[in-house]
Design brief:
The complex is a heterotetramer, with two copies of chain A (about 160 residues) and two copies of chain B (about 80 residues). Chain A is α+β, with helices and mostly antiparallel strands and about 160 residues long. Chain A has one domain: Molybdopterin biosynthesis MoaE subunit (Aldehyde Oxidoreductase, domain 3, Alpha-Beta Complex), CATH 3.90.1170.40. Chain A has three helices and nine strands; from the N terminus they run βαβββαβββαββ. In chain A, helix 2 packs antiparallel against helix 3. Chain A is elongated and about 50 Å long. Chain A starts with 12 loop residues before the first strand and ends in a 13-residue tail after the last strand. Chain B is of the alpha+beta class and about 80 residues long. Chain B has one domain: Beta-grasp domain (Ubiquitin-like (UB roll), Roll), CATH 3.10.20.30. Chain B has two helices and seven strands, in the order βαββαββββ. Chain B has a five-stranded mixed β-sheet with strand order 2-1-7-4-5. Classes of the chains: A alpha+beta (about 160), B alpha+beta (about 80). Chains in contact: A-B, A-C, C-D. Chains A and C meet through helix 1, strand 2 and helix 3 of A and helix 1, strand 2 and helix 3 of C.
């Protein structure tokens, strides 16, 4: 029906992890970076974004949240997003962690970290990965409000909007 | 030809099922698959579709063995 | 000669620290964040940039580097930069750490972290702080090359250029 | 009137001093202060100047008690 043209990607490592347990982002990044011995002295820039759960949304107190996802597709799309970032910026290494399942306010939901030689690339690539994750990775949030009522979050707020591609 | 259909999140609740299996004798578009499986429920405007875990347009044809997924706009991160 | 119009700034905390000893950025951020109890559940976004020393620059191997600065002015300018960020974006908290003195390859040179409710603000503000730090904070690098030769770094490479203001 | 002048980094090495003290009887611009103190060394184009730790243009007048600093483009971060 349609042709896929496969392209060889540069050899760049990325770790993509979905996590049911609580995430300590700084510990995760420190551990991951400790494993990057071969890149020591090569990267001058690390850009990190951590998204965490607020205790309010759209004017309501939120007690907890369930993060549903599409196993398999999530990993495939995140991999694809990171590969697209690698094609656009000379990044050396990336890390993407996302919570799934039941989460509580203050919990970390997502971690994106990018290592590169120059800071502009790390800034751009981490934001690209984050924005594309928000619009293309198949996660859905269902909030439990203080009242006990449940509701699906219907759309992501915010700046950049990208079409699925 | 057999295709597997999956529903996620609020859409799963709306259709009341998480999966369907559809036997077809000729290729159907993504949109036509929805109509066959949900004759009384028009596909919501914002629905996203994926075939074999890649996003597709609604006029793409679904092939034997494909896994087709329908879901609402994503809200991760 | 010229008039200063002072403006009251919103009450936002920021920690600015110059550091002669080695910096563990993830530990620093974790510790600082642990002290933000009053903001727990309020921030949904943390954007972090870490700049570290590479072992090469302009085609040469670099053995070590001395970071000179202008004590007093450095803190004043960094404070001013963060206040300007606070005027432009609704950020909740910031942290800026910069090494001074003798540094070695792989050492962390700078840490900028911004906490905010929404991710766009944290991304924008952290980049603004970093770019302005690069162009306005009075730090100067002198490299010691593998050959033993010393040289002052004459300008910062990179994307954004801002005039001192 | 007395003003204090400081030099940093490569500029400190070029002028061979880290500080000067200048007594003046009338206000001088930043640029004129440089010329008085460094008559044989034209101010490099890229030099930055700060009065009391704020950046200033070279035509700003320096006042009694001010601390004036000259330095090359900054390279931190």
């Amino acid at each position: 029906m349609y042709w896929h043209f496969f392209r060889r990607l540069p050899e760049v490592d990325v770790l993509i992890r979905l996590c049911e347990a609580a995430v300590d982002p700084w510990q995760e990044i420190a551990s991951y970076q400790a494993g990057l011995a071969k890149l020591a002295g090569k990267y001058g820039a690390t850009s990190v974004f951590v998204g965490s759960m607020r205790d309010f949304n759209q004017g309501d107190d939120v007690r907890s949240m369930f993060l549903e996802h599409y196993p398999g597709m999530t990993e495939k799309q995140l991999q694809h997003i990171v590969e697209q970032a690698q094609e656009q910026w000379p990044i050396l290494e990336s890390l993407v962690i996302h919570r799934v399942g039941l989460v509580k306010p203050e919990d970390v939901l997502v971690v994106v970290a990018v290592w590169s030689a120059q800071r502009g690339d790390a800034f751009d690539a981490s934001r690209f990965i984050m924005e594309n994750l928000k619009s293309r990775a198949p996660f859905w949030k269902k909030e439990v409000l203080a009242s006990g009522a449940e509701r699906w979050v219907e759309k992501n707020t915010d700046g950049y909007q990208h079409q699925p591609s | 030809m057999s295709i597997k259909v999956r529903y996620f999140a609020s859409l799963k609740e709306s259709v009341g099922r998480s999966e369907d299996e559809l036997q077809i004798t000729y290729p159907l578009t993504v949109h036509a698959v929805w109509q066959q499986l949900n004759p009384d429920f028009a596909m919501p405007d914002a629905v996203l579709a994926a075939v074999n875990m890649d996003y597709v347009a609604l006029d793409v044809l679904v092939l034997d063995g494909d896994v087709l997924a329908f879901f609402p706009p994503v809200t991760g991160g």
